[in-house]
Amino acid sequence: QVQLVESGGGLVQAGGSLRLSCAQSGTFGQYTMGWFRQAPGKEREFVTAISRSGASTYYLDSVKGRFTISRDNAENTVYLQMNNLKPEDTAVYYCAADSRGFSFLVAQVEGGAGMDYWGKGTLVTVSS
After folding, report:
1. pLDDT digits (tens, 9 = 90+) for 65-104
2. Residues 33, 84 contacting (CB under 8 angstroms)
């Protein structure tokens, strides 16, 4: 059973930064990790993902150059560094894990599929 616990959300002014963390129980190195977000009244968005080794990453176009995903396999934790935050980044951010390989998984998720395991989410609010 994989459990994911997010932390690091909060209120920040536009242009500010936050770092989200997601701690996973289980064999962390065997999972592709991702972050999704869902704003009120909107559909869930696939924000970013990172391969098991950390060598490959994917980003939603609107966050490229501002967000960075990373992982520490020794600490069983994945991070999302968010810089130059905008009001439109306001959402509940969810960490997710999946045992499928990175490239295949990204293609599946871009096509609307979900991932195997989910955290409960952490709220990020960006004020203008």
Report:
1. 999 999 999 999 999 999 999 999 999 999 999 999 999 9
2. no
